[in-house]
C-alpha cells in the first residue's frame, strides 16, 4: 500500500481512484501522519461485512453431540 500526501492526492484524484480500483489502495497522509485510506468499493464492501465471532459461532453446523456435557455443579459451588 503506497502512501501519498494529501496535496498529491488532490492534484490527481482520478489516478488515486483508478489505482484503488485496480487493487492498489493508497494511504493519504497530512503533515506526515496517516489520515485516510482510498480503496475500491468492492474491497470496502468485503471488509465491512466480516461477521462477528458470535455470528460465526451461531452459524457453525454443531449438533448436541458436538458439545461436551454440562457439569451440573455450579462453578461457585465446586470445591477446588
UniProtKB/TrEMBL annotation:
Spell out the family assignment given in the record's similarity comment. Answer: Belongs to the phD/YefM antitoxin family.
Domain of life according to the entry = Bacteria
Instruction: Explain the purpose of this protein.
Output: Antitoxin component of a type II toxin-antitoxin (TA) system.
Instruction: Write down the NCBIfam families for this protein, in alphabetical order.
Output: phd_fam
Question: Can you say what this protein is called?
Answer: Antitoxin
Amino acid at each position: 500500500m503506497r502512501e501519498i500526501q494529501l496535496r498529491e492526492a488532490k492534484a490527481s484524484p482520478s489516478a488515486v481512484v483508478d489505482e484503488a480500483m485496480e487493487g492498489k489502495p493508497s494511504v493519504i497522509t497530512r503533515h506526515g501522519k496517516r489520515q485516510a485510506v482510498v480503496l475500491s468499493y468492492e474491497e470496502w464492501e468485503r471488509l465491512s461485512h466480516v461477521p462477528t465471532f458470535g455470528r460465526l459461532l451461531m452459524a457453525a453446523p454443531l449438533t448436541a453431540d458436538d458439545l461436551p456435557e454440562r457439569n451440573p455443579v455450579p462453578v461457585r459451588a465446586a470445591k477446588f
